[in-house]
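USER:
Make up one protein:

ASSISTANT:
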Amino acid sequence: MIIPKAFISYSHDTLEHKKWALELATRLRNNGIDAILDQFELQPGADLPHFMETHLASSDKIIMICTNKYVEKANKGQGGVGYEKMIITSSLMKNIDEIKIIPIIRQNGTTEVPTFLKSKLYINFSKADDFEFSYDELVRTIHNSPLFVKPPIGNNPFIPIVKEKMEEDNKLLDTVLIAILNGQGIDSFEYSSSIIQTLNISPSFFKIAMGKLIDKGLAIWVIAFSRVASTEKGLIYAYDNNLIK
């Protein structure tokens, strides 16, 4: 299992805010994310610039907790927040993809982010009542597990379904014919059970496919001996359509 690593960047506004950041990091770790927080990692005398540079570069995500004071420090280049901003916007920016930085808002009545993050979408943690929804979105983003998954492309409504079905049928029949030819090799036949096992298809589907190949004159089936073979027409068809070399 790959464990994503998330560096948490925040400003030491108040003891309450430091506690909030600590609780967020702890909960993220409990949800399978290697949350990196200075309160976990640093002891008195530790090298703060080295800590920032190392983990900013190696993390999969950078969570920026944007309080009003954090935004002010980032824009003015002050303190640890300013140093982190300098690292991200200079040499490391070349190696940071567009979705590595996740701004999260924790403000009262505003949704400000540092100037260099103005173009990025954020997650708003300002309302305590909406915390669980915001937290779920954050965890899903880090784990790359979106709540809504893009559905596959459907059929063109202006193309007749019958035409698409015929094209799909031809592909399936080609697959069965190739299996017959490959199994048959230079021999005169192949066993139907071998084709069913090779393609991992049901006997019923095999019967339907063989019926259509026989109707087209591409294959024969000696049911009594459970033997199938390509006709000469089937061999030429496969060669002309690049189904075999």
Q: What stands out?
A: The beta strands are 5-9, 34-36, 61-66, 101-105, 123-124, 190-191, 219-222, 227-230. The first strand starts at residue 5 and ends at 9.
